[in-house]
């Protein structure tokens, strides 16, 4: 038996063991996905343990996605630009780091909306998730506006994105979002605003959502956030974070095994659990 781990703190409510273990079993793979609750001061030891020959790899989540970098041997280009790793592959004791969050986001968006090429996108937030999405879409979209509460952080992300991609990229204060909703194609929320238990808040406040806007919320608990309920009421197309959660997992699965997992089964399991309120 080989093992994959989720390194985080806390990790107890993760849906990853359910989706990965079911997908491993479906392909008759002798791999088990387990939670590894790692306090920040124990991260180096936990990372070293991933070199063991019975470990295939790991996912990395809050609060270790950035602090794990010094303990990894090779970091792929996208993860290095994002500055965070969410997937580690153990190749005979050599640890290679990747970031599959952005790929997961693109797949979720294109499945629901279609191609994002040439679109005008508003990205709310400038933290780890916003960086992963930003670097993954910057070469595809026409215009990308990063809106953040802390403008300096948005400007710093814009600077890095300009070096990486050739779309038109700019920064704005999150408060200015109301002026941009009518002239954009896609709104992506990469802040935790609206996440359980803060379920009455929306990252765009009371601003009116045009019916032509595609609204994607990375938050997956609750399944329908305040932002998505408002998008639905406005007649806009919308998508919650569960699909991205599954598709980033699908990309990790492919890195560890070289095989395609049963995506629709993984999606069904995760959505069922979220509907039961078990996350
Ligand atoms: N669906 C998925 O697969 C998936 C994957 C990754 C993350 N996520 C979700 O994405 C969200 C962000 O995660 P993260 O890792 O990027 O977190 P993070 O690194 O802590 O960044 C949080 C961002 O949200 C902003 N923010 C926080 N509280 C805010 C508030 N009350 N009002 C306005 N802005 C606020 C922060 O702005 P400042 O810079 O101004 O503080 C920052 O830009 C979380 O809810 C996470 O669960 C989902």
Quick description:
The chain has 279 residues and is of the alpha/beta class. It has helices at residues 16-26, 43-49, 77-82, 101-113, 128-137, 151-164, 226-234, 242-257, 263-275; strands spanning 2-8, 31-37, 55-60, 74-75, 87-91, 94-98, 120-124, 143-148, 168-173, 186-189, 214-217, 238-239.
What can you see in these coordinates?
With 279 residues, the chain is an alpha/beta fold. The protein has two domains: 131 residues, Leucine Dehydrogenase, chain A, domain 1 (Rossmann fold); 139 residues, Rossmann fold, CATH 3.40.50. It has nine helices and twelve strands. The strands form two sheets. A six-stranded mixed beta sheet has the order 2-1-3-5-6-4. A six-stranded parallel beta sheet has the order 9-8-7-10-11-12, with helices on both faces. Strand 1, helix 1 and strand 2 form a beta-alpha-beta unit. Helix 1 packs antiparallel against helix 9 and helix 4 packs across helix 8. It is globular and about 55 Å long. The two termini are 27 Å apart. The relative contact order is 0.14. The structure holds NADP nicotinamide-adenine-dinucleotide phosphate. The site of NADP nicotinamide-adenine-dinucleotide phosphate (NAP) has 26 residues, from helix 4, helix 5 and helix 8.
């Amino acid at each position: 038996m080989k093992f994959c781990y989720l390194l985080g703190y806390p990790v107890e409510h993760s849906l990853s063991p359910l989706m990965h273990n079911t997908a491993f079993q479906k392909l008759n793979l002798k791999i088990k996905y387990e939670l590894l609750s790692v306090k920040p001061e124990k991260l180096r030891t936990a990372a070293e343990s991933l070199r063991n020959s019975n470990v295939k790899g790991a996912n990395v989540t809050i609060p270790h996605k950035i602090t794990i970098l010094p303990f990894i041997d090779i970091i792929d280009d996208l993860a290095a630009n994002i500055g965070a790793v969410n997937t580690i592959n153990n190749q005979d004791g050599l640890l290679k780091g990747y970031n599959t969050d952005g790929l997961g986001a693109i797949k979720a968006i294109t499945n629901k909306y279609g191609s994002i090429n040439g679109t005008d996108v508003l990205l709310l937030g400038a933290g780890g998730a916003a960086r992963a999405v930003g670097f993954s879409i910057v070469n595809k979209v026409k215009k990308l506006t990063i809106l953040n509460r802390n403008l300096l952080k948005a400007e710093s992300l814009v600077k890095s994105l300009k070096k990486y991609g050739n779309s038109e990229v700019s920064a704005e204060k999150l408060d200015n979002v109301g002026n941009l909703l009518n002239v954009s194609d896609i709104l992506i929320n990469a802040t935790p605003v609206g996440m359980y238990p803060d379920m009455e808040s929306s990252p765009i406040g009371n601003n009116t959502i045009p019916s032509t806007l595609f609204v994607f919320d990375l938050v997956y608990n609750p399944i329908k956030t305040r932002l998505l309920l408002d998008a639905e009421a406005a007649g806009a197309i919308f998508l919650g974070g569960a699909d991205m959660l599954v598709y980033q997992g699908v990309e990790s699965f492919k890195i560890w095994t070289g095989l395609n997992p049963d995506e629709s089964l993984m999606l069904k399991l995760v959505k069922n659990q979220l509907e039961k309120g078990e996350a």
